[in-house]
């Protein structure tokens, strides 16, 4: 029988733990004079919102995983980071020659085109803020949450 491998804690997970320890958390406690029926209704609405939030998280996570799985998008991310590094290296030079200035402008133009292509792919795979908002509206309407604070455009 093989032994089970222990999970190796990465540097990222260590930093994340330290961040969570250092980040402030506040709890607001208010007193109210609500009848029991209204309290139950309020807690029910909060639970429905929690369920919608979890469902939305699942939807967006699936969409993001599908986007990141594509070879084209991964290639665009790599080219974006390479171009960005090149731009930063050129910007650190105090005095640029005319050739370097032209090269910098070309790199910035390339960065914009790659960025636009990435944004288009994000729209195709529904990984945008607008899709997230609309999906949450649909989920809240499906669960009949009336006072959720989400405005539904007519």
Structure in words:
The chain has 154 residues and is mainly alpha-helical. Helices cover 71% and strands 0% of the residues. The protein has helices spanning 11-22, 36-69, 71-92, 98-124, 129-142. The chain is elongated and about 75 Å long. The model has no long low-confidence stretch (mean pLDDT 89).
Rg value: 24 Å
The amount of beta strand, in percent, is under 5%
Number of helices: 5
What is the chain-wise order of helices and strands? HHHHH
Mean pLDDT, as a whole number? 89
Share in helix: over 70%
Shape: elongated
Separation of termini? 62 Å
Topology record:
Blueprint: H1 11-22, H2 36-69, H3 71-92, H4 98-124, H5 129-142
Task: Please provide a brief summary of the model.
The protein is built from five helices and no strands. By secondary structure, it is an all-alpha fold.
What structural keywords apply?
154 residues, 5 helices
């Amino acid at each position: 029988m093989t032994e089970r491998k222990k999970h190796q804690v990465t540097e990222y997970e260590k930093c994340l733990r330290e961040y969570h320890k250092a980040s402030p958390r506040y709890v607001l406690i208010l007193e109210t004079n609500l009848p029991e029926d209204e309290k139950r209704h309020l807690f029910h609405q909060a639970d429905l919102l929690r369920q919608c939030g979890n469902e939305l998280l699942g939807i967006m996570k699936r969409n993001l995983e599908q986007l990141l799985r594509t070879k084209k998008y991964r290639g665009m991310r790599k080219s974006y980071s390479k171009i960005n590094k090149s731009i930063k290296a050129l910007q650190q030079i105090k005095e640029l020659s005319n050739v370097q200035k032209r090269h910098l402008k070309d790199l910035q133009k390339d960065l914009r085109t790659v960025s636009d292509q990435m944004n288009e792919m994000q729209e195709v795979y529904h990984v945008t803020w607008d899709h997230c908002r609309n999906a949450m509206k649909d989920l809240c309407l499906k669960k009949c949450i009336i006072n959720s604070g989400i405005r539904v455009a007519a």
